[in-house]
Design brief:
about 120 residues; seven-stranded mixed β-sheet; mainly beta
Length: about 120
């Protein structure tokens, strides 16, 4: 089992940047696929970006070219660098983990990102 703790959210003006971190506890972090999701007020939670244990990365179209995911297996941490932020990026951002071939069963508590116009 893995526990996830996000940090790095906050308030930023449009065009600004934030870096989210997700620290994982538990064994075998490097065998998990990791993902970032977000949920805006009144909307369903949506997938933003994922990085597999192999390093393969998948982005949702709306963040391509602006967001970058990375992982440091030695630190059991995954990062989300968010640049050129837009007001529509405002949401609670969640880190999630899944075993290979499984579903995202492990979730952090979320961190608020607010982008002002």
């Amino acid at each position: 089992q893995v526990q996830l703790v996000e940090s790095g959210g906050g308030l930023v003006q449009a065009g600004g940047s934030l870096r989210l971190s997700c620290a994982a506890s538990g064994r075998s972090f490097n065998s998990y696929d990791m993902g970032w999701f977000r949920q805006a007020p009144g909307k369903e939670r949506e997938f933003v970006v994922g990085i597999r244990w192999s390093g393969l990365i998948t982005y949702v179209d709306s963040v391509k070219g602006r967001f970058t995911i990375s992982r440091d297996n030695a630190k059991s941490t995954v990062y989300l660098q968010m640049n050129s932020l837009k007001p529509e990026d405002t949401a609670v951002y969640y880190c999630a983990a899944r075993r290979v071939g499984g579903s995202y069963d492990y979730w952090g508590q979320g961190t608020q990102v607010t982008v002002s116009s």
